[in-house]
Design brief:
Structural class: mainly alpha
Oligomer: single chain
Helix content: 55-70%
Shape: globular
Strand content: under 5%
Number of helices: 10
Largest sheet: 2 strands, antiparallel
InterPro entries: ABC-3C_MC3 (IPR045390)
Number of strands: 2
Pfam families: MC3
Length: 167
């Protein structure tokens, strides 16, 4: 399947995006020194990254942090891919909103209206037979969790600076 077709398939499925949002939020809370939750704005940046195969590929546990992730694009001379995040945030904003809405309605996250933060919910119900996620979706969820941990180590301005995005 072509890369564009695969991306469109992912892009048109907000339930997969809601899973990514949940995993990103879990990773952020687990990685944050005080267990704090991410503000909703960071989910738009995360979804811009998580819905692109080129931006998703360098995310792994073998990298230490967000700076290492950014350097991976500079080392391979693919910095134009990194610079595409700003436009991807705009392009994926409706998808991200739909994914956040789905995640809230399905009980994956809770939105604190006063702080603008999304908190992950603990799942106690196991998936039934034949309803388990595909391995590719699980791997992408693991990457979302890693990205959340990386984001949790920085404030909003640092993330903005590293990824060259403007809020």
């Amino acid at each position: 399947m072509g890369r564009l077709v695969e991306e469109v398939k992912l892009w048109n499925t907000p339930i997969i995006g809601s899973y990514h949002i949940w995993k990103f939020t879990q990773g952020y809370c687990d990685g944050h020194p005080h267990g704090d939750a991410p503000i909703g704005l960071l989910h738009f940046v995360a979804m811009a990254i998580l819905t692109s195969k080129d931006l998703l590929k360098p995310i792994s546990n073998q990298r230490d942090d967000l700076q290492s992730y950014v350097r991976s694009f500079e080392n391979t001379k693919d910095s134009d891919i990194l610079l595409s995040i700003q436009q991807r945030i705009r392009d994926k904003s409706q998808y991200t909103l739909a994914a956040i809405d789905t995640a809230i309605s399905k009980g994956l996250v809770m939105w604190d209206m006063e702080s603008g933060k999304l908190y992950p919910c603990k799942l106690i119900k196991r998936t039934g037979r034949g309803r388990a996620l595909k391995n590719t979706i699980k791997r992408e969820g693991e990457k979302a969790e890693i990205l959340g941990k990386w984001f949790s180590k920085h404030d909003l301005l640092s993330i903005e600076s590293y990824l060259k995005v403007v809020f």
